[in-house]
Amino acid sequence: MKKNSKKQDSVIDNRNNEPVIVNDDDDEDTESLNSNVASKVRGKKRKLISKVWNYFEILDTKPGEELMCKCKKCGNKYSADSKNGTGNLNRHIQSCVKITTKDIGQFLLSSNQGSLLSRNPQFSQEKFRELLVQALIRHDLPFSFVEYEGIRDLLKYLEPKVSFFSRHTARTDVKKMHASLVSKVRNELSACPGRICLTSDCWSSIVTDGYISLTAHFIDSEWVLHKKILNFSYMPPPHNGVSLAEKIHTLVAYWGIDKKLLSLTLDNASANDSCVNILRSQLKLKDALVYDGSLFHIRCCAHILNLIVQEGLKKIDVSVDKVRECVKYIKGSQIRKDSFRKFIEQISLDDKKGLLQDVPTRWNSTYKMLSSALYYQLSF
Q: What is the sign of the dihedral through the CA atoms of 157, 162, 168 and 173?
């Protein structure tokens, strides 16, 4: 019969004043005897297998008397009744003056061996490979990362049994993981009980390559809102309404959600109006939209707000342009930036804030530029 209690750490000083950390498992040990020792406990013969019985021996008792045991080292007597567990015997072993530190260490090692094994699971090459591939994806690492000598030395130190793989294998594993996740997301979209809302936007890289994103927003059967980026795809020119509609329709059909759409949110670019009209016509032929598609086109509120603010900024264009040119001039040369920093130090301003340059398509960036310029006004 087991008696549960909380585990508690204690410290025992040995003769060299070196602390020995012990784990007091109190009553979680199973009361047991050595294979050659047996006693009657509540009328039943039981074998005691706990390690504490290496330090205690069962005393002979008469019928009806409480079962007792004594320490083999010091002779102290304790109850051996199963209902009391073995916590008191454990505590005595850790404090008995006639039991050496070496004996205690051996006892704790044998007692905790099973728990140590459970805390340190066996190394899995398959799991290691999966986690390493996930790291490549999450941190945008090159496939050749798995071949870096420094990384391999580190992993070999942590697990000598590890087997490495090449960048070509890493590439294959990434593709397999992508296929697995695509299947998982497709199942989630299929199981969605309601309609799905899409958002999409176009983006150009620093080398002017065009890309288009497609994100799905939906509520599952547990009423949990999900947002899944379905695609971030290369979008070749031209970026007109026909091309955008064809691209989005292809992506929607690929995910199998063309009959589950509620709306599509886009910015206010003129090409998007044409794109939505074409998509709406195609989906209406399949009777896939609610309210005859009147809810299908949603204009991006953030983009509308930006247009409103930019229109208002035109009233102070002259002042904003002067600030913008000043910021560009200072940030355009390291010598000018160093000189500006010296002026900032002379008037005891914080140089960590720094000058900020705005982006025309983000009204809040213009606000931050003006705010930083006002802060450093005396330095210009």
A: negative
Q: Are 23 and 51 in contact (CB under 8 A)?
A: no
Q: What share of the chain is helix, strand, coil (3-state, %, to 5)?
A: 50, 20, 35
Decide: helix, strand or coil at residue 321: helix
Q: Which residues contact 286 (CB under 8 A, 6 or more apart)?
A: 258, 259
Answer whether 0.70 is exceeded by the pTM: no
Residue 374 CB neighbours (<10 A): 9
What residue type is 376 in one-letter code? Y
Query: What type of residue sits at position 9?
Result: D
Distance CA 201, CA 211 (A): 8
Number of H helices, E strands in the chain: 11, 12
Domains of the chain from N-terminus onward? 8-119 (no CATH), 125-184 (no CATH), 193-299 (3.30.420), 315-379 (no CATH)
Q: Render each residue's pLDDT in the chain as its tens digit; 380 residues.
A: 444 444 444 333 444 444 443 344 444 444 444 333 444 444 445 566 677 788 888 888 788 788 888 888 888 888 887 777 788 888 888 788 677 655 555 555 555 555 544 455 688 999 999 999 999 999 999 999 999 999 999 999 999 999 999 999 999 999 999 999 999 999 999 999 999 999 999 999 989 899 999 999 999 999 999 999 999 999 999 999 999 999 999 999 999 999 999 999 999 888 999 999 999 999 999 999 999 999 999 999 988 998 899 889 888 889 899 999 999 999 999 999 899 888 888 888 887 888 999 987 788 999 999 999 999 888 87
| N- to C-terminal Cα separation, the chain | 83
